[in-house]
Amino acid sequence: MNYCVIPAAGIGTRMRAGKNKMFLHVGGRPVLFRTLVNVERAGCFDLVVISAHKGEERIVAQLARSALRGTEFRIVTGGTERQDSVYNALMSIDTGYGDMIAIHDGARCLATPSLIRRCVEAAREYGAAAAGKPSTDTVKSIDGDAITGTIDRRGIALIETPQVFRADLILPAYEQARRDGFSATDDCSLVERMGVRPRLVPSEEPNIKITTKGDLSMSNDLLLSALPRVGTGFDVHRFADGRRLILGGVEIPCERGLLGHSDADVLAHAIIDAVFGAAALPDIGRAFPDNDPAYKDANSMALLKTAVQTAEKAGFAIGNIDATVIAQAPKLAPYIEAMRENIASVCGADLSAVSVKATTTEKLGFTGRGEGIAAEAAVVLARRRA
């Protein structure tokens, strides 16, 4: 069997948040919740054992129930130090030959399921493995505030969790450390004392251990930047004599065009509103008022470019665009590719990220009666990374 031990009993002295940092929210969810979700998604474990701070067992159990939908879990009371909390969890497990035990900090909520799986696989092959990365910074030895020397970083790795072990290695190592009164800052240190050489598993950036408010803020930004923002837009214009029919910046041969303050490009307008919606910005009516002379007969593709630039200033970039034009006539199929190309060019998006479709309403409603054209659009924005 495979077990995962999650120490979550720390009081977070350096965080100074007034409560256990496991319950602080990052990306809209508690830190511990996110850690447990990634542990379950790894698909490696038969049982998760969580060490909780005394008096917090119930709230930890509630988080575990909501996060671990398909994995059995157990709550134990933690100890004064991390090592004590892990020991208490280990003592609650009945292990057999070949069992694997992962130990993963509850505060490392960005560790991916992929990283967790790779650590388990490496430990199964080598007996012990830990996530980590080579140091890219220069490493110095210090005495108080004084720098006393430089350490060759080529022999340095910054070790994280998960750290995974065969049960017959980690359990005796913890027992021996307890007998010797030996205290370590990680679990590998304990098996290293027994002559074991854990395997380094290259970490996936980032795998931050949330310790300070700065760590919390950085993790929150990273999580939110990974979440797509989706907006929808819808627009309608009636037909009128003496007007050009412009859709997606393409002039379509037609006896009538669409009536509007601008060039009435209904497709561009739907996309503009979807962009603004995804970025939670004011809609097209407020951004480009139809009573403002500046926008009289305006090129709507220029307005779309402005909308995209506005979203970019708010920190977003176009992910993809999916739009549909609803018109009984004229036939639009011959012009779809030109529309896609125009929209992709104006939005700074790859052509493969822009979809334009055309459909009819089978002669139902105002579009079916040929009174006008409607368009709807969905836009996905991704947060730009600085």
Can you tell me about this structure?
The structure is a single chain. The protein has 386 residues and is α/β, with parallel strands linked by helices. It folds into 2 domains: 225 residues, Spore Coat Polysaccharide Biosynthesis Protein SpsA, Chain A (Alpha-Beta Complex); 155 residues, 2-C-methyl-D-erythritol 2,4-cyclodiphosphate synthase (60s Ribosomal Protein L30, Chain: A), CATH 3.30.1330. It contains 12 helices and 18 strands. The strands form 5 sheets. It has a 7-stranded mixed sheet, with helices on both faces. The chain has a 5-stranded mixed sheet with strand order 15-12-18-16-17, sandwiched between helices. A two-stranded antiparallel ribbon has the order 2-3. The longest helix is centred in the N-terminal third of the chain and has 14 residues. It starts with a strand and ends with a strand.
Give the topology:
Elements lengths: L1 E7 L16 E2 L2 E2 H12 L4 E6 L4 H11 L4 E6 L4 H9 L9 E4 L9 H14 L1 E7 L4 E5 L2 E6 L5 E10 H14 L7 H5 L6 E4 L10 H14 L2 E12 L4 E3 L2 E3 L4 E2 L7 H13 L5 H4 L12 H14 L2 E11 L9 H12 L6 E6 L5 H4 L3 E12 L3
What low-confidence regions span 5 or more consecutive residues with pLDDT below 50? none
Q: Considering the protein shown, what is the CATH homologous superfamily of the largest domain?
A: Spore Coat Polysaccharide Biosynthesis Protein SpsA, Chain A
Radius of gyration: 29 Å
> In CATH, what is the class of the largest domain?
Alpha Beta
